[in-house]
Amino acid sequence: MDTHLTDRVAIVTGGGQGIGEGIAQKLAAEGSHVVVVDQNQATAEAAASRIRALGRKALGFQVDVSSWDQVRTMLDRVVAEFGRVDILVNNAGISPKKDGRKILVHEIEPDQWDLVMAVNLKGVFHCIKAVAPIMMRQRSGRIVSISSQAAKIGFSGPAAGHYAASKAGVSALTRFAAHELAPYGILVNAVAPGTIQTPMRKLTIPELDKLAIAGIPQGRFGTIDEVANAVVFLASDLASYITGEIMDVNGGSVID
Ligand SMILES: NC(=O)c1ccc[n+]([C@@H]2O[C@H](COP(=O)([O-])OP(=O)(O)OC[C@H]3O[C@@H](n4cnc5c(N)ncnc54)[C@H](O)[C@@H]3O)[C@@H](O)[C@H]2O)c1
């Protein structure tokens, strides 16, 4: 079946590396033009130039999603360049660790808590707030945010409590935005990955990886492609009657 993503305009936050870069590339492979947003200018530019090599339009923007001013300015420039926004993927996120191990809740410093919430949760809010009026005018749009299995269980490898709380917030915000925006033809969903092999993940230590794999019924970590496939599906016409869904992509590690 056709995803009907040809000439759609997509924004992918945290698109410079890891899962975000995989999503950006897959959307481009399906025909979309992609705005790669990342706090790292070099990786954002490099990812955008790989997309241009596929024959699509692509821009790289250095944006810290925790800054409302930077997000709003970026959206103004995207609308000036493309005239519309069809897809927003909220992927930028951080997962602080201590020497590759999890930080316990009582060890989290208040300013570390604030930083994780500012990037992982407020950043998603900023992007939805900025893009919603544009999509409401268009009477169409897709928003897909990256939550995590950590949002719904009491332990998730090296992920810490502030990270889990921020991702639970992403799932809750997804449901509320889905309910409010459906009448405007805007569908809002999330993907909740289990453990995926990415640069974020490589900071952990091998013996903990073995233990983690033992807890995954499919017996392996997920790939960037497997998360990107779910995001592209939710952004596409194949998911035209799905909203407020938090889709697990976790090899069976959490089944509920
Ligand atoms: N890797 C996993 O196992 C896993 C599991 C569940 C959920 N996730 C989520 O998937 C998303 C991507 O994770 P990843 O593993 O690819 O991480 P990653 O660290 O490899 O990539 C994250 C990207 O986000 C960017 N970024 C970080 N803070 C930013 C900010 N303030 N503004 C803009 N960009 C920022 C980084 O520069 C980087 O390019 C994150 O939201 C993460 O929480 C990852």
Q: Which CATH architecture is right?
A: 3-Layer(aba) Sandwich
Number of strands: 7
Strand % is 5-15%
Protein structure class: alpha/beta
Instruction: Tell me the series of helices and strands, N- to C-terminal.
Output: EHEHEHEHEHEHHE
Radius of gyration: 17 Å
If you had to describe this structure to a student in words, what would you say it looks like?
By secondary structure, the protein is α/β, with parallel strands linked by helices. It has a single domain, classed as NAD(P)-binding Rossmann-like Domain (Rossmann fold), CATH 3.40.50. The chain has 7 helices and 7 strands, in the order βαβαβαβαβαβααβ. The protein has helices at 18-29, 41-52, 68-82, 110-138, 161-181, 206-214, 224-235; strands at 9-13, 33-38, 58-62, 87-90, 141-146, 186-193, 246-249. It has a 7-stranded parallel beta sheet with strand order 3-2-1-4-5-6-7, with helices on both faces. Helix 2 (41-52) links the parallel strand 2 (33-38) and strand 3. Helix 4 (110-138) packs parallel to helix 5 (161-181). Nicotinamide-adenine-dinucleotide is lined by residues 13-14, 16-20, 38-40, 43, 63-66, 91-95, 119, 123, 146, 148, 193, 195-196, 198-201. Nicotinamide-adenine-dinucleotide binds at residues 13-14, 16-20, 38-40, 43, 63-66, 91-95, 119, 123, 146, 148, 193, 195-196, 198-201.
